[in-house]
Amino acid sequence: MNDLRPEFEEANIVVLGSFNPEIFHPEWFVRQGLVREKAASKVNVVHPEVSSIEIDNMRFDVNRQRFQATTNNSECYEPLRDVVIGCFSILIHGPVRAIGLNRVFHYKASSEDAWHHVGNTLAPKQTWDKHLAQPGMRSLTIEGKRKNDSGGIVQVKVEPSGRTKPGIFIAVNDHYPLEEEKEEQRCSRLIEILKNNWKDLFRFSEDVSKSILELM
Fold first, then answer.
1. Sign of torsion, CA 7 13 16 20?
2. What are 142's strand-pairing partners?
3. Which of 5, 26, 111, 157 is deepest in the core (most CB within 10 A)?
């Protein structure tokens, strides 16, 4: 690796539940005091079935079953979390089922040999040599629980990058089911997770990425 800085990174928050997409318009965010009145905004589509808008380097994509807030601007990671907390503080009785906190990285490899070494270490070719010619790791997903016992289920995915070649794609998903909570308490639990676990996701995902990059 040339360094530990990614060529591209993104953070997003996904909430599963039941939503009314057309309320998610830039004017609604302004009226609710969630963003500044003169925030730069763009409406891609606002419709009863789907809404896609952009506000100050943050993107919100909502359909009937899924709410996603995304940014690839590191200065907006905290504002993104705060806006989502604000949304579900207003929609406090909304029927939600789960929340996922996610980070995505694309790292450029210093050489093809270094790039191959990651796949060879995580998924040894010897296992497949007798069955396949030129076997190589296409995708690897590891699932487990966080050692801090936060109640979440973590998945770490490693693949060849589709953005930079040769490169490594790393995605960390911190998933929290909410259906065991009473329905009227689920948004409160969602907000608690965002307040307590958002920064921890960043530390964890960077530690995981560092461990993978050290293979090179």
1. negative
2. 156
3. 26
- Residue whose C-alpha is closest to residue 82's, from 181, 169, 2, 11: 11
With H, G, I as helix, E, B as strand and everything else as coil, classify residue 107: strand
Residue tagged 């790791």 (tokens): 137
d(CA 4, CA 205): 13
**Is residue 68 within 8 Å of residue 12, measured between CB atoms?**
yes
Q: At 39, which amino acid appears?
A: A
In the chain, what is the greatest distance between 2 CA atoms, to the nearest angstrom? 63
Residue 216 and residue 63: Cα distance in Å, rounded?
40
Nearest to 61 by CA among 43, 38, 39, 81: 43
Mean pLDDT of each 10-residue bin along the chain, 216 residues long:
79 98 97 94 97 97 98 97 98 96 96 93 92 94 84 94 96 95 94 96 95 90
What single string gives the DSSP state of each residue in 57-105?
Answer: TEEEEEESSEEEEEE--GGGHHHHHHHHHHHHHHTTT--EEEEEEEEEE
